[in-house]
């Protein structure tokens, strides 16, 4: 087992060769990870949790160093908050490892095994993707989440966190490595990049021989750059410009509850509603009640002309508002003529993340579900439900707004692929 | 409905703008294709078949022109054969359309709809990928196959065939367009690129705003170039360096039948065995019988040292032979020590396409299935079964040697993706 490289070793090392070394170690680990049984993977997860408990003091000290450096560098309060660890957050991290260990192992599951006229049986077996590179920003708990989900799904991973969390990530990494070793799994199974050199990212996304897929987690500009420059497939999450369309047949109380929840439950999440579409016949009845509810939450409304005919005090929405992902207590509101106009608006301005209809009309519900091309499409439910835990995936490494491989919340299954298995008894092709 | 552009219109047109026009038309068509019901798609397929019957004389005349041009250009006999159409091949194309029409429509299928503690129901609905670009070489029947599979799965497609099949493809395209029109589907649903300008390919693979995925079908160099330069995901098929490993417990008759079939059933296919691995204890009993059988088929053997100790007349295999995709009556043979050595050989030299074990040992069969990382893994069956029809997919647009999205034979399901659907009754997130 090759030892992990520490910060100090790397100070003089060449980043290219270092990243190649990580890639080789990860690729080599895939063979053993493919054959690791569920018990071994769970043993590693539990051992990691134990080490994390024991290393509390060290991790909090490392985190304090990161925070001090961050404050000196003038990081803003929101970023410092994401970076900060405390006992409660460490408890949640330990608990997260136990939860992932408790999840069913998707690897080895065989679907649809069927007999064919030739006499063979054919099915599809879930297998790991291989090596996953994950690039993320300040939150150090992502190191643990990503490592545990990749390990449970039988993948090797190379994790590149933000430079501001350098010391925290290094301290957490030691626990991960110790857990792997305790369970007899290869060191290449989980590797935390031990350099803050930006060239490491460029190298990580351009090693198709060692890395099978990249999952970037972070701001839109980071993700766009990685997607542009990656030489391997990327599972990504871009914007969440989510809509709720309230149809004329909607139950007003449900509409009100959903529209308020979808906007105000949390402002900064990707599944928060950013534009409300109201069917014209309902505008006079619904909009004043909504405006009152939003005012109570301090939500600013920006409306189309027809909205402003009903709500006179509301500001004017421009083209930019229809594509805005506010992530703030601001909501764009548009009055539309029926489901066709609503779906046309969503198709033109939406980001294909999550869109909901509120309706009591069976046929319209069915059409909206079939025709709206988003990763989650809902009837009479808040867009805030678009989440791996709410969907029952047990965990979530992110939400994919891509079309290929996996759409929507990505859990363990999204980190696997399926190969064909053929069972025969000497059959040959005629 | 915008009319399709003919060769003559395009003679002076700007390729970039032309490809962008095709992309826009395709993207626009996706909205109507998403809502097209199975009956409408099948009606278009049947109408295409009817037009193809009526246009036989024109298509054969166009094909004759392609063939004459090909002969003048000095194309080799194999290429001319792939290019050639006759009544039997046209019959097969017409029949192929009927078969695709008869396949179940994957679009709209909902898997795993489950109730969650919050009261919502969550499931996953199959939906089209969007716009598929297909780049292929000389065989004009691919135009029809690709168009029918994309249409049935609700995708718009842009098809770019080989320049040597220009006139044949244009004649077939007219039938496709007429079929779409007869069924009231948009012209943008199927578009055959009407220029042989190579710049069209470069443009097609670099329009992420209009094209969701590229499927290249052709030689390895074409596919490698497209993968390198594409700015959208590619579902690709690279080499098929397939193995059969005969374990010491194998039934000799089954081993013989499978090894002979896997090599000699067809030489030029990607699922043909290229390397045979024989467990050492079996070498003396099996190799002479195999050598005799291969000699009867005119297959040249190239062996490792231990193979040559048993079969003295066999030539020596070099490193290059272990990675060779011969596509010819040549077979590399290696004697190995047990399943570990066999799997290590496959991992090092294989291409992850299709690999089989011949064994009567339950535990070894189970290990081989779980641990060999190929798109198809088989026990006691010929590698030649790795095929969409043999697997019961009903049709095949190719075989993916990629890991993400789809592995192995790609049928209608591989041309779709799944979005989440959420059914509620007014639920909000707590």
TrEMBL record, chains A, B:
Residues 23-296 form the Aldehyde dehydrogenase domain. It comes from Halomonas cerina. Pathway: Amino-acid biosynthesis; L-proline biosynthesis; L-glutamate 5-semialdehyde from L-glutamate: step 2/2. Keywords: Amino-acid biosynthesis, Cytoplasm, NADP, Oxidoreductase, Proline biosynthesis. It comes from the Bacteria. Catalyzes the NADPH-dependent reduction of L-glutamate 5-phosphate into L-glutamate 5-semialdehyde and phosphate. The product spontaneously undergoes cyclization to form 1-pyrroline-5-carboxylate. PROSITE patterns: PROA (PS01223). InterPro entries: Ald_DH/histidinol_DH (IPR016161), Ald_DH_C (IPR016163), Ald_DH_N (IPR016162), Aldehyde_DH_dom (IPR015590), G-glutamylP_reductase_CS (IPR020593), Glu-5-SA_DH (IPR012134), GPR_dom (IPR000965). It catalyses: L-glutamate 5-semialdehyde + phosphate + NADP(+) = L-glutamyl 5-phosphate + NADPH + H(+). Pfam families: Aldedh (PF00171). It is found in: Cytoplasm. Belongs to the gamma-glutamyl phosphate reductase family. GO terms for biological process: L-proline biosynthetic process. HAMAP family: ProA. The gene is proA. Its EC number is 1.2.1.41. GO terms for cellular component: cytoplasm. GO terms for molecular function: glutamate-5-semialdehyde dehydrogenase activity; NADP binding. It is an enzyme of class 1 (oxidoreductase). This is Gamma-glutamyl phosphate reductase.
